[in-house]
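User: quick one
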Amino acid sequence: MTLILAHRGYAAEFPENTLLAFKEAEKAGANGLELDVQMTRDGELVVIHDEKVDRTTDGTGLVMEYNFEDLRKLDARFKFKELPRKEQIPSLSEVLEWLSGTSMVCNIELKNSIIPYEGMEEKVINMVRAYDLSDRIIISSFNHYSIVQSHILAPEIEIAPLLSEGLYMPWIYAQSIKAKGFHPHWRAAPDQIVKASLESGIEVRPYTVNKETELERLFKVNCSALITDDPAKAKRIREKIKQA
Ligand code: G3P
Ligand code: CA
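Assistant: Done. Structure below.
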């Protein structure tokens, strides 16, 4: 079965990368989450997509210039202002703590391509191990040096390179860096690439799949998982295909 991973949580309907969006993704029937990790000035791992807080909060400036305590004062509801309560930027620790009480998998994307946060890999790994979640976590990044480093530090935790463009025989590349799968942009995941990868024992989890036609195609080709903003819609389509 193709797993449904909620991109930044249930980002189509709730503020991305907040505990609310993660909890709602679980309620909507997602099999797992995808989330983004950056680091504060005082070294706290926090769940936010951009290097800056400007787009998704009422604050301004770089995450790396905030202390965690000050970052927590920001409101991360951004375009969902009608929500009754303020939402905070979560720490990775609080998300993993909550996740450990669920059965979901979680793809942690290290956002260290633009700012090379020193020691991020080790901090993430220590936290995953502390919550005993090694078998439910996939560490991904556009920074492939970073995921290789993660694999060296923690061979028990799965890694997956993010591929924004099509690559020649990406399953061979994945094998070469000891990844059991890769996460391509959906345009870089045509059926023949998905099939050839699966035949080689390499998992394919395309992002960010929101169009009905693409969701249908990837379910039909039996892709390992897909990453979507709308887990409820994806689940409906998966059910429809199963019944057909
Ligand atoms: O992990 C897949 C996807 O989230 C990568 O792109 O920019 O949404 O983090 P982005
Ligand atoms: Ca991401």
